[in-house]
Amino acid sequence: MTDRYKNLFSTLDQSALSRADKVHLRDQNLALLLRKIWAGHETTRATLARQTGLSRSSVSSLVDHLIDMRLVEERGEGISTGGRKPTILRFNYQSKFILGLDIGASHLGAIIIDLNGQVISWRQEPAPVRLQPAQSLHQLNRLIQEILDESITNRDQLLGVGIAVPSPISPQNPQYLSPTFMPTWRDINLIESISIPDNIPLLIDNDANVGALAEVWWGAGQGCNQLAFIKLGTGVGAGFIIDGKVFRGHGGSAGELGHMVIDPEGPTCVCGLQGCLVTFVGSQPILKHAQKLGLEHQKITDLLSALKEGDPIARDVISSVAKSLGLAVAGLMNMMNPERVILGGDLALAGDSLLHPLRECVQTRSLWSAISNSNIVTSTLGEQVIALGAATSILQRTLTQPNQVFTQWRG
Amino acid sequence: MTDRYKNLFSTLDQSALSRADKVHLRDQNLALLLRKIWAGHETTRATLARQTGLSRSSVSSLVDHLIDMRLVEERGEGISTGGRKPTILRFNYQSKFILGLDIGASHLGAIIIDLNGQVISWRQEPAPVRLQPAQSLHQLNRLIQEILDESITNRDQLLGVGIAVPSPISPQNPQYLSPTFMPTWRDINLIESISIPDNIPLLIDNDANVGALAEVWWGAGQGCNQLAFIKLGTGVGAGFIIDGKVFRGHGGSAGELGHMVIDPEGPTCVCGLQGCLVTFVGSQPILKHAQKLGLEHQKITDLLSALKEGDPIARDVISSVAKSLGLAVAGLMNMMNPERVILGGDLALAGDSLLHPLRECVQTRSLWSAISNSNIVTSTLGEQVIALGAATSILQRTLTQPNQVFTQWRG
DNA sequence: AGACTTTGTTTTTTTATCAAACAAAGTATT
DNA sequence: AATACTTTGTTTGATAAAAAAACAAAGTCT
Fold first, then answer.
1. Which long-range contacts (CB under 8 A, 24 or more apart) does A396-400 make?
2. Do domains B19-91 and B97-211+387-410 have the same CATH topology?
3. B208: buried, middle or exposed (CB in 10 Å: 19+, 13-18, 0-12)?
4. What per-residue string of b and e applies to B337-375 under the rule 16 or more CB within 10 Å gives b?
5. Please, which residues have CB within 8 angstroms of residue B305's CB and are 6 or more apart in sequence?
6. Distance CA A64, CA B292 (A)
7. Superfamily of domain B222-380 in the CATH hierarchy
8. Contact assessment for residue A370 and residue B256, using Cβ atoms and an 8 Å cutoff
9. A22-91 belongs to which CATH class?
């Protein structure tokens, strides 16, 4: 393994390992306080001590460390509650910035966020990703230069880069895409193809996975311990968050909802199977279905405009989509019993027109106990969700293992 | 919350909490050593120091503590490897025993194991659990007395009691069964109905969940990080293990594979839905199906005997079952990408007659990436698996949080 | 004005680990 | 057989981190 890979976070879940590893107490407490301050926006040393159970003296010492790292600042005094006025501690959300890249089947997106998830800069453009990898990578590297030049004065401010790809990612080889879904990308090493300095941490993950992460951090999934994010686009994929972490399955391909078999006698899918969900609710099949019924559109968004204007054909098409999707979602809920299911992608913009028939279908196909405490909603993060999630994966690592992340710059 | 519930382990996954909690370093290292000694059967202080990275002096001190707790013993001297002979440390597997209870839809089972999973005693008998809770509880309490009297001289030797039930369990109210599946058990408080002294830890969980646990500890799932256990019996349920822990979903009802809709136009199920998997592969529907084709049996095991003798009707029935089951398993694998799927219950005794057509069906319904590193096998633990798993849940808690478990007896 | 509170720091104590020294008991070499 | 080296496990002192206690600062409440 070359030096280039030192900064690549393993996508492997490390809980199994860290359990067997020696614990570095101070690092853990440092991360614990960092998360509390991050989540609280403003707090005080005394409050932190009460919340964490650490002593006031330990908290003082640890907070000093965080201030030295420039992640936390003192911001004047707060209001007395019957004694000395506390010193307000504030997370320094603008001390670093994160780049998130969204490599879609037919588009590229790039976002810069601060440590509070605020969007500093955002760009998106069409690109022939699936068919022309070389050209797309060139385009992507230009996009990266542009957005960095625009938003960041000093490269030291770049905390890391998260990359989302439209393919399952194997934990062992995150730099290569799946030959099944992206045949033209075979043998292309994504890490080496991207022009980011060697000492900047990189993280590659599946688009639906990071979409789920974005929703639980910033969107409709806040506060959920178990959630599923379904990305409805050219393809259909799901990402799962379980107890704050992305669930990837054994080979990294968990969440392949798009290739659940809905109709064993259905049409043949690009993956080779028959009657996959994506052959009913992928963008292309939907548009074709509408076309057959006499409604011609090139984009899902155009179809949805027609829907809003009350077009009965569009309505029928969407409700037929809801029924197919409902079968898969019902299966998902029976199987995994998530707290919330969040629909994302172009199609989710249909809102209630999609949700109402979908919920109805799910109700007739799921156990009461599996859905009684659950709900299905649409994403609130729009087209940025994937790029945002990619960036969030870097932020998550920073807040859980700050010292590991920050030594990247020291070495 | 009364004292009675102090000893009831929450079935809630505590990882989210413990992350936010202060770390008790010595407790963690104690548990770490305990697990290493447990897994190694026999080891030495020097070996432990090398394996864990702890210093020899720390190991010595911690091991002394474990010896005081009577969990570990010194067992003479080992062979020299060029220097002083090491002292052999041996896990004291017989220092405590665990009671596991299997409350099935129509049977009761009770098992006593030592800390190495060795079965000390095992009983099983039919019982009208689903329809007559009061009588069944009476029967169960008699069974508990009998098996304890038979195997355990001193009640101090009982480390805890694990209970498996044929119903989803809500993490908030583990003592009540689901009214949907066990309507006659409504308002019955399971914890208070079982005659076990108040100071003995109890753990209630769903049968498929603990079945999965048994397989990963003692059976066909050893070494797996992600596995699914499918219990094929009167009902059909799945249990998931993710990174060593049972995955329960938000409301505790993850794994309801039996109520995945296989055929939207299929027969109505007891749960109220239509075409559930269980209406095709539950014991009763299978026997009825065979009956229709002219093969009359009262039990699945009888049907399987016929199968072994080459009965073509039995063969057809099983392969039809495999096809239905295959649809659900394929969905499971696409969605969760487990390393291994293990079939348990009476039907799993069919072995290859079931596995071959099942694997074939799954292959034509699952993505290559979701199944290429996975396999489907049958359980190796037989009819004890559920009771064994219930007991194992207590063992797991003991080995991960020994101090928490043992203070139960000191208080 | 005086008593009590709350906060944050400083000092001291406690806890847990580690490193080094050491004793015990072996093997390998000459 | 004597000596040198190894390995193990304990003991002793050093170090790191946290907690407890004491304290100073700055408030509120009566």
1. A396/A213, A396/A217, A396/A244, A397/A9, A397/A160, A397/A201, A397/A203, A398/A96, A398/A115, A398/A159, A398/A160, A399/A31, A399/A34, A399/A35, A399/A38, A400/A31, A400/A35
2. no
3. buried
4. bbbbbbbbbbbbbbeebbbebbbebbeebbbebbbebbe
5. none
6. 77
7. ATPase, nucleotide binding domain (3.30.420.40)
8. yes
9. mainly alpha
The tokens 């991207």 sit on which residue?
Answer: A194
What residue type is assigned to position B338 of the chain? P
Are B13 and A243 inside 8 Å of each other by CB?
yes
Interface touch A178/B257, C-beta < 8 Å: no
Alpha-carbon span A385 to A121, nearest angstrom:
14
The residue behind tokens 């004694």 is: A83
Show the CA angle centred on residue A84, arms to residues A80 and A86, nearest 5°.
65
Question: pLDDT tens digit string along B130-174?
Answer: 999 999 999 999 999 999 999 998 888 999 999 999 999 998 889
Residues in chain A: 411
Cα(A270)–Cα(A105) distance, integer angstroms: 14
Give me the residue spans of the domains in chain B. Answer: 19-91, 97-211+387-410, 222-380
| Helix B300-308 × helix B283-292 angle, to 10° | 50
Does any strand D atom come closer than 7 Å to the Cβ of B57? yes
Q: Could you tell me the strand order of the sheet in which A107-114 lies?
A: A119-126, A107-114, A97-103, A158-165, A202-206
Q: How far apart are the first and last CA of chain A?
A: 17
The answer to whether the Cβ–Cβ distance between B336 and A338 falls below 8 Å is no
What pLDDT score was predicted for residue A202? 93
CA atoms of B219 and A404, how far apart (whole Å): 37
Give residue B376's pLDDT band: very low, low, confident or very high (50, 70, 90): very high
What amino acid is encoded at B207 in this protein?
A: D
CB atoms within 10 A of CB A102: 28
Q: Protein footprint on strand C: which nucleotides are under 7 Å from a CB?
A: 4-11, 15-21, 23-28
Please check whether strand D approaches the CB of A55 to within 7 Å: yes
Closest CA in chain B for residue A369: B253
CATH fold of A221-380: Nucleotidyltransferase; domain 5 (3.30.420)
CATH for B19-91, options being 3.20.20.70, 1.10.10.10, 3.10.580.10, 3.30.1330.90:
1.10.10.10
Q: Which two tokens stand for residue B310?
A: 């080459």
Rounded to 5 degrees, φ, ψ at B327 are -60, -45
Residue of B255, B253, B342, B338 whose CA lies nearest to B11? B253
The amino acid at A110: A
Chunked mean pLDDT (size 10), chain A, 411 residues: 32 29 83 94 96 96 95 95 96 96 96 97 97 97 97 91 94 89 93 92 96 97 96 95 95 94 88 90 96 94 95 95 96 96 96 96 89 94 97 94 61 19
What is the least distance, in Å, from the CA of B411 to any CA of chain A? 23
Measured in degrees and rounded to the nearest 5, phi and psi for residue A85 equal: -70, 135
Would you call B168 and A369 a contact, using CB atoms and an 8 Å cutoff? yes
To which residue do tokens 């503590």 refer?
B65
CATH of domain B97-211+387-410: 3.30.420.40
Strand C close residues, chain B 56-85, CB < 7 angstroms? 56-58, 61-62, 80, 82-85
User: Identity (one letter) of the amino acid at A143?
Assistant: L
